[in-house]
Amino acid sequence: MADRNFEIVVRLNDQFRVIAEGGAAPRQWHLQRRKMTRGKELWSSLSFCVTRDGLLLAIREKCIPIGLFKRRFEYPGLDPVAICKLKALPARFQRARAAAEATT
Q: Which of 2, 6, 27, 71 could join 19 via S-S bond, C-beta 3.0 to 4.6 A?
């Protein structure tokens, strides 16, 4: 991500994380994957989500190998504390921003 104006929401494991856009008008969460290129850490966005359920679905589709999970709400190989934090996010991203602004 060329623009460094973001907030890391959670690290799911060594390879995946969720960030929130920063700046004056943040609009969405990004699911990102880490790659090492010539010894340099690069993060690329895999999914852009405005709803918590969409974000959780993207995580299941992109971060967990097929056949590794058996139940709908399992997230094997990912930090269970991070998943709990994601499940506690507001249903829509706009509400997350409004809640943050209300507390400041």
A: 6
How many helices (H) and strands (E) would you count in the chain? 3, 4
Predicted confidence (pLDDT) per residue in 35-94, tens digit: 998 999 999 999 999 999 999 999 988 988 766 555 555 677 889 999 999 999 999 987
The answer to whether residue 1 is domain-embedded is: no
Q: Where are the alpha helices (DSSP H) in 33-92?
A: 52-63, 80-87
Measured CA to CA, the distance from residue 10 to residue 20 in angstroms comes to 10
Task: Tell me how many domains the chain contains.
Answer: 1
Helix (H) or strand (E) holding 100: helix 93-103
Alpha-carbon gap, residue 68 to 29, rounded angstroms: 25
Q: Is there a domain that residue 103 lies in?
A: no
- Domain of 92 in residue numbering reads as 6-98
Q: Is position 91 within any domain? A: yes
